[in-house]
Amino acid sequence: MRIVVLAGGIGGARFLRGLKRAVPDADITVIGNTGDDIHLFGLKVCPDLDTVMYTLGGGINEEQGWGRTDETFHLKEELAAYGVGPEWFGLGDRDFATHIVRTQMLGAGYPLSAVTEALCDRWKPGVRLIPMTDDRVETHVAVTLPGSGSAAGAGERKAIHFQEYWVRLRASVPAEAVVPVGAEQAKPAPGVLEAIAEADVILFPPSNPVVSVGTILAVPGIREAIADAGVPVVGLSPIVGDAPVRGMADKVLAAVGVESTAPAVAEHYGSGLLDGWLVDTVDAACVERVEAAGIRCRAVPLMMTDVDAAARMAREALALAAEVRAV
Ligand code: GDP
Ligand code: CA
């Protein structure tokens, strides 16, 4: 079975670990979000690709869900001693090596997809991990920062990098708009459209619908290829009981005018894209609403408390895909 998964960071990676356990013989291609990518200290950092690579390759910091296990921060401390920041982005010594290798290879002219493949030679994630594009895309968030005191109440409206919004500000101000800068001009990376065309099933893990899956879908050609693939497309809700399980997805959903509920996210993707949608058992009452939108829906436990729980979710997603296919 050939499975294509559109993944962000933590939610995508943890689901993928379950999917691998559920169907060890499947041929899995992961299309990774690169809208979170950022240049720091002259290095190219790809947080979501690395979270998938480290999680599936056994190098992830389990409690945090991102970054390396057994990490130290000497390099960051030394940089801070020179007054070189940003101090708000947690890059550890082990993690730095990944970004140095990546930046060096990019500098030598390799595209990001080839670099990712080379990094995966070490980590052996057991899936084919492809960035959504080799072109530069950076998600920016429009915010109004509190005024500096002169004109009372007047704030400064500006666009900031997604990482600055998410990590430095912890989404503490409303996101007024979310823009994947560069996406319109980006081309899918080599292998992306081919994998979609050859897939037997396409899955949207419980990743952020706006800044993870939404960014991947913003690369021209990807959404169309999925809609035209003619195979079941099944998603799992990252929203359980009207709130994101982890993180601040509600803030970016508000920016695109979508309420933070499992059925609203399904409707946001729409029946033109999604054939099936899994909601958590606490949201069982919304199954009818999702089905009324033309998307087959089931309520099953959606908390990835451990790898077995994630594997059960993956089996449910594949069962729903089989149900959709049989219609
Ligand atoms: P990020 O790039 O690290 O933010 O990760 P993703 O975009 O892949 O996933 C983030 C989303 O995963 C958040 O919106 C969470 O609500 C969701 N999530 C995290 N853990 C779980 C879980 O156990 N169950 C479900 N249903 N969603 C989860
Ligand atoms: Ca991310």
Automatic annotation (TrEMBL):
GO terms for MF: LPPG:FO 2-phospho-L-lactate transferase activity; magnesium ion binding
Keyword flag Repressor: no
Protein EC: 2.7.8.28
Binding-site residues for 7,8-didemethyl-8-hydroxy-5-deazariboflavin, renumbered to this chain: 50
Pfam families reported in the protein's UniProt record: CofD
Pathway it works in: Cofactor biosynthesis; coenzyme F420 biosynthesis
Cofactor entry: Mg(2+)
Keywords of this entry: Magnesium, Transferase
Top-level taxon in the UniProt lineage: Bacteria
PANTHER family hit by this protein: 2-PHOSPHO-L-LACTATE TRANSFERASE
Family: Belongs to the CofD family.
Cited function: Catalyzes the transfer of the phosphoenolpyruvate moiety from enoylpyruvoyl-2-diphospho-5'-guanosine (EPPG) to 7,8-didemethyl-8-hydroxy-5-deazariboflavin (FO) with the formation of dehydro coenzyme F420-0 and GMP.
Protein name: Phosphoenolpyruvate transferase
Organism: Streptomyces griseoloalbus
